């Protein structure tokens, strides 16, 4: 660009250039919208308006501003002041003329509202009612935002012609004011974003600190600790960031669960997640630093990625399940003991030994017979016969639904066992299938009394007892 190209299209007078410089200095030093309007009023007041408003656009439809808010106002009758921010102006109904400036970067000059064809009758009547004969609208078009973010409106009591120099300066001021206003808006939005981010950080920190599980965050690549919450620190009785710079797998002694075998750090869920970028989980034993000895931790690790999908850290959450495992082991032991006791009681109820006299006992069998129950029958039968000094023992199989060689063999073993104690066995309730099974065993059944019913067995023992006397 040549020096000639850099010169403005309109030659400015020395006084105007000085005022313009003063206005831009004021814009640079402004701390509020009132200060911004005050800065440009250095040039605008001498033009003769009786009032000036700074409006900021607030709502849009199809990129056309539909609502605006007056944020600063000046008039001859009152000093410059900020305006309440709780009321928006409906541009479509109150200032339909705004459609002239919403997409403009140059000032819109209504030098004589009564004669300007761009103004409709309704607008003319409204302006006449408030004694406005001319207006200058300076659209605040921001390149950074990409649209008009506001407008400065100057109100004149009488028609007003604007010189080329005035039009040039008005355009320059509107561009400058838009730039500084946009900067303030972007800065305010950034500050609000930072405040929101800080609030979210504090909320997240509060949540993490009060979780009932340990949280540990490690940096990708270096594996260095970035964060550890209160529960995580208390679980392992370790500082939040190891003072010697050790990473997590160097700071703790870690074993495979339930053993004293050291676990290679490459098998830790957090290490694997940092290496592969995939979630991992596991259970380990860790030596606690607070005198608790070995604690068992359930671990679950997951990657932490940025918006581009790159993993920059990994987090592992861990839960101390030492006490839970101890309680579960106790419950399991109690449950197993209860099951054993119930099984024993059930077995005793399923193999009752009934005394029918001083030297006669009977055991009515009900239900299927298998190996364990056969052993239980023999055990109960031998103990009962010995305790009562019985001479006869009746085994009644009327309630046994099915009989095969296994059942027959169990009955013969029971009979042979009591015979060794000097007790005469009596089998009652033998059905044809039981008889076939006994014959099929091809054993000597001599010495084993077999009768059809329990009642006959009782009569047999009574008769035998009578003869013995």
Distance between the termini: 145 Å
Beta-strand segment tally: 18
- How much strand content do the residues show? 25-35%
Structural classification: alpha+beta
| CATH evolutionary superfamily of the largest domain | GAF domain
What does this structure look like?
With 469 residues, the protein is of the alpha+beta class. The protein has 3 domains: 3-189, 2-Layer Sandwich (Beta-Lactamase); 214-325, Beta-Lactamase; 351-468, Transcription Regulator spoIIAA (2-Layer Sandwich), CATH 3.30.750.24. Helix content is 41%, strand content 26%. It has helices spanning 3-6, 14-29, 33-44, 121-129, 164-209, 230-236, 248-251, 269-276, 322-350, 371-388, 405-420, 432-440, 454-468; strands at residues 51-61, 64-75, 78-82, 89-90, 108-110, 134-142, 147-156, 214-219, 225-228, 254-256, 280-287, 294-305, 311-320, 354-355, 360-366, 392-399, 424-428, 449-451. The strands form 3 sheets. Strands 1, 2, 3, 4, 5, 6 and 7 form a 7-stranded antiparallel beta sheet that branches. Helix 3 runs antiparallel to helix 5. The chain is rod-shaped and about 150 Å long.
